[in-house]
Amino acid sequence: MATVTPESPDTAHAPDEHAHPSNWLYVKVAIALALLTAFEVFTYFETVHGWGDTAIIIMLVLMMLVKFFLVVAFFMHLKFDAPIFWRLFVFGLILAMAVYMVMLTAFRFW
Questions:
Q1: pLDDT digits (tens, 9 = 90+) for 36-68
Q2: Helix (H, G, I), strand (E, B), or coil: what is residue 7?
Q3: Alpha carbon distance, N-terminus to C-terminus of the chain
């Protein structure tokens, strides 16, 4: 018969695991994502009121990058994983943004 010993808080996780954030942090991130999405929709519909196209594109791209960071860092747990995974996602983001900007300029200026 095996004896069970209570675990101390320091040994609650295996050596290769990490402590996950609290549920409240996930709720705060979800609220931030919802607010950013609402502001993106508001920004898109404000194009009728005379904001410049360049300003709108810059604002939407910046909000998209912030949302990408929040989702990847917290919901995909890359903030707590090995740095190589974070670098791969950043590389993918840079590549996607480069392709997006090339296509945007091709449709806009050519």
A1: 999 988 887 766 566 677 778 788 888 988 998
A2: coil
A3: 77
